[in-house]
Structure formats: C-alpha cells, structure tokens
Inverse folding.
C-alpha cells in the first residue's frame, strides 16, 4: 500500500485546470521529485495534498485513509507536513523558538490543555528542539532571531520546523531555490539523511541537478497533467519531457 | 531576579498611586480615572485579537452590547449588578461568536471592513429600537452598580470597583498571553499558513482570541453603563472603535503594557477635548506622530531616547529638541 495516493486529483480555477486528473503515488521510504515547467501545477498540487486548497474532483489517501477535504492542521496532525516555497518563518522568534513551535504546535493539545500549560518549555522539549537544530546544522544559530539568519539557513530552518512536527511524509516546496551550489548540495544531503531516518519525501524543485541527484523517482507535470514518470534517467531522456521544457511546438495538453 | 523585584515594586507603586486618587483627587479626577480604566480594559482586551493578526475596528460594538444589556436588565428587571454585568459580557461574547465565526476566513482589510460595518449595525439597532433603548433620546435611569446587595453610591466606591475589575482582567490577559495559548496567537499573527501547516487549528484560536476580547469589552461596557448611567447610541460608534485601536498602536504592539500605556496616555491627554470635534483631530495627530517617529509605540520611547543620547554623545552636541 502506498503511503500517499491520489486518484483523478483535479483542481479548477475558473475554467483553468491547474491540476488535471493526476494519479500520484508515493511509497514509504521513497524520495520522489515533482517537476515541470513554470505553471505546470506543482505548487497547486502541494496545496491540495497539504489541505490548503480543496480538490475540485478526485481523492487523496494518506496511509490508507482518505484525507480529501481535511483542513491543513488536521492533515499536518496525521503526519503529512509541508514547507513553503517562499521563506515562511516566525520572523520575530529565535531559531530555537521556531523549532519549538513546530514541536509543540503539532502535539494535538486542545485549547484546554493549551490554556493551563505554561509557556516555558519543559527541558525535554528544549532538548528535542536543540537536537533538531543540531541535526540540520543550525545549532550555532539557535538563539538568533530567525529573520536575521542568512537565506540558506532560513530555508533549512523551515525544514527543521517541519521535522520537529515529526512527519511521516515531508513535502518540500523548492528547498534549494536561491542557493549556491555548495548550499544546495548540503541541503540535498540533508534530505537524504532525513529519508534514511525513516521520513518519506516528496519535493518540488527547479534545480535539475539537485532533483536528478537526489530523487529515485520523478513525476513530471505539464499543464496540470502528468506527462511522464520514472527514474531520473528515464525522465531526462523522455522526448515528451524535453519538448515540454524546451517549449518546442505545442506542449501536450 | 532583581528585575522581577523592580517590576513588582513598580506595580505596587502604580496601584498605590491609583488608590490615592479618591482621597486626594476629588470627584473630578475619580470620574476621569474611572473612564481611563474602562479604556484600559477595552484596549487590553483587543490585544489578543490584534496579536492573531485580526484588525478589529469594531470593539466598541461589543462594549455597546454589554452596556445596553446590563443597563436594561438592571433597569427593567431589577437584576443585580453582578448578574447583569455577566449577562452583558456573555451576550457580547455570543454576538462575537456570531460575527466572528463567519468572518474568520477574511483577512486584514476585509476582516476590518466587516467589523466596521458591524459597529454601524449595532449603533443603528441601538438608535432605531426606540421602545427598548429609547433611541436617540438616550437611555437614562440606569441604577448605580452594586456589589453583594450593597449599592455603590459614592464615586470613590465605583472607582474602586472598576480598578479591581481592570486589575483582574489585566492579570487574566497577562496570564493568557504568557501561556502556550499566547504563543499560538503570536505564531498565527506572524505566519498563519505556517502555523496551520504545523498543525494549529487557526480558525479556533482566532475565534477564541476574538471572543475573549468581546467578553471583556462587554464587562467594560456594563461598568460604563452603570457608572455614567446614561447611554447614547453614537457614543459607541466608529470613533470609539478606532480610539481603542489607536490606544494599541500609539501605546505599542510589541509588549503587553503597550495598550495600557496608550489608553492611559491618550485618554488623559484627550480629556480637554472630550466630545468636541477636536477629539478626532487629537487622535489623528497622536496616531500620525507615533507612526512617523515611534513606529513601535510609546513603549519604545525610552529605548529611542537612549539611542538618541548615545548618538549625540558620539557626534557633535546639538541643541536639545523641544520637550
């Protein structure tokens, strides 16, 4: 049974099908890349999977259970956690506090427990938060305000927060965009380490070198539809994919 | 530790100072400070909502609901003050739920527009439902507040009542802001999509913040009704609503004391203009000056002054600006 499975996933914006009848599966333990030219529907796809948008048609199953139409926080609570394309952080909190927020917020505490709990984090939570920072290589920046971190570190912090929420499936939206070769190499290594620790990964990325070097399987979207699927070699040699990227003639719609 | 003792001392001194107003200030100052404290309750109770990123320009509507409910219950049905106050606050909360729930998905300006419209709706109801509220003739003959069956006839005793109400409410709000709930509010205000993706039910927590504010605005309204003993619909209009917001921004959004400082400072300074057209001008100028020179609000003034001083000692001495 796949960890994530979509059937006929469709989202219309007015008359435009941003995502059109996409069947997508991700198995436990995989690193899957979702690629495609600009406007192919990758981010819409992520928004559908993470509950920020509702599908017009089709279904999403996570871990064998239907999660179609659940709210974002409910999906996150089930272990499907995403990061954001643009750097999205709690800007006025320190790096450690950001991670602690990730640790705490997913804990499924109801308002009543929240109301009667102290804000000071217990030592074990702080230790766990520091572990996550250590693991992602941000330990030395723990007490800096997140908005003062360099761009690369901010992106990694985004991943660290998602990790703190203990995902089973991590959706990474353009994790290495805007990074230099060195930084992006390190982030992709981090992604592999995350996977080896048991978290399945689905990522959207434009940096082909990063995608080809990291993903075992790649799904190509074009005009909202699945255009091709396979290993990095299969995909990068597919004439359809080359045509879609180079824009020669009319793309398959 | 020393810092904590310092804070405690300042708080004790402030409360002592507040207690000195009735014996030394006379009824005029007692009256004014009672209204200042009402404004403090209103400003502070708006803070949770603002922290969540909800621009609520309709707080006075909930004050109005609390005021009219409590006044009418006490006047027409002889309900004791404690109960009528509670009913007013609860009805304000329920109305808050009714208005807050459907508008939760709205953000920023759109949410603000709903709250502005709501202020007008409540004002018009108070104005047009003449058999109940007396409309534009105003509702008079509201009984004085009472506690445990004892009517608080003197201005001083009513002043002590609102002082206690304010202190209790501030302690509750302080506790909430420094609990995990406060952290969640803060995280929603900073990046709601991120909070959501980490598992926070943002709709629920925003609604909680909003309704909490409505409850305390209702309390403030109820006290106001029994203190002034005359209710006039336009008093709770758009002007009052923006004033509550301005207290928060002029005082400063960055710290719990911001709205308190803002409310005290502005209500005292605007006292000479109360009810005149100059009041609006005064508040506009206060807001403008703050945005231009102290974007962090009055609470950042000491830091700003320290910066200026260090800058001045570093460079050539310049004549000091007018105080």
């Amino acid at each position: 049974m796949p960890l994530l499975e979509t059937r006929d996933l469709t989202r219309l914006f007015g008359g435009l099908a941003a995502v059109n009848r996409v069947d997508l599966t991700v198995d436990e333990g995989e690193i899957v890349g979702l690629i495609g030219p600009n406007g192919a529907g990758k981010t819409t796809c992520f928004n559908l999977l993470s509950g920020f948008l509702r599908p017009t048609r089709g279904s999403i199953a996570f871990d064998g259970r239907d999660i179609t139409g659940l709210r974002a926080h409910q999906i996150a609570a089930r272990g499907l956690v995403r990061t954001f394309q643009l750097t999205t952080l709690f800007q006025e909190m320190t790096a450690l506090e950001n991670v602690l927020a990730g640790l705490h917020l997913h804990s499924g505490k109801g308002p009543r427990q929240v109301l009667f709990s102290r804000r000071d984090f217990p030592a074990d939570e702080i230790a766990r938060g520091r572990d996550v920072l250590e693991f992602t290589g941000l330990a030395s920046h723990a007490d800096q305000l997140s908005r003062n971190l360099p761009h690369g570190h901010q992106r990694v912090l985004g991943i660290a927060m998602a990790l703190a929420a203990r995902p089973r499936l991590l959706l990474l939206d353009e994790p290495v965009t805007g990074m230099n070769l060195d930084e992006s190499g390190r982030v992709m290594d981090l992604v592999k380490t995350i996977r080896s620790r048991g978290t399945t990964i689905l990522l959207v990325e434009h940096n082909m070198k990063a995608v080809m070097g990291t993903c075992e399987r790649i799904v190509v979207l074009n005009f909202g539809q699945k255009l091709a699927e396979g290993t990095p070699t299969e995909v990068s040699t597919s004439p359809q994919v080359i045509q879609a990227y180079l824009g020669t003639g009319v793309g398959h719609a | 530790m020393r810092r904590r003792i310092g804070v405690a001392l300042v708080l004790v001194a402030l409360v002592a100072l507040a207690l000195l107003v009735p014996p030394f200030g006379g009824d005029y100052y007692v009256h004014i400070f009672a209204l200042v404290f009402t404004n403090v309750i209103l400003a502070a109770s708006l803070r949770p909502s603002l922290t969540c990123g909800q621009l609520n320009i309709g707080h006075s509507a909930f004050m109005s609901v609390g005021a009219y409910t409590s006044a009418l219950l006490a006047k027409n049905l002889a309900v004791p003050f404690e109960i009528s106050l509670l009913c007013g606050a609860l009805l304000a909360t329920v109305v808050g739920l009714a208005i807050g729930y459907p508008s939760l998905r709205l953000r920023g300006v759109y949410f603000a527009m709903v709250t502005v419209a709501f202020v007008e709706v409540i004002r018009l109801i108070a104005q047009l439902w003449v058999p109940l509220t007396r409309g534009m003739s105003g509702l008079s003959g509201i009984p004085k507040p009472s506690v445990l069956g004892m009517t608080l006839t003197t201005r001083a005793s009513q002043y002590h009542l609102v002082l206690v109400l304010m202190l209790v409410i501030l302690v509750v709000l302080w506790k909430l802001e420094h609990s995990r709930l406060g952290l969640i509010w803060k995280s929603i205000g900073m990046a709601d999509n991120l909070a959501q993706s980490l598992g926070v039910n943002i709709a629920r927590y925003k609604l909680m913040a909003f309704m909490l504010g409505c409850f305390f605005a209702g309390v403030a309204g109820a006290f106001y009704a029994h203190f002034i003993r005359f209710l006039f619909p336009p008093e709770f209009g758009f002007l009052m609503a923006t004033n509550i917001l301005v207290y928060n921004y002029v005082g400063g959004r960055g710290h719990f004391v911001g709205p308190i400082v803002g409310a005290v400072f502005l209500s005292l300074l605007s006292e000479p203009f109360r009810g005149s057209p100059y009041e609006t001008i005064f508040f506009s100028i206060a807001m403008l000056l703050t945005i231009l020179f102290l974007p962090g609000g009055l609470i950042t003034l000491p830091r700003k002054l320290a910066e200026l001083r260090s800058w001045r000692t570093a460079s050539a001495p310049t004549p000091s600006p007018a105080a």
In short: The interface with chain A takes residues 176, 178-184, 186-187, 190-191, 193-202, 204-205, 208 of chain B (CB under 8 Å).
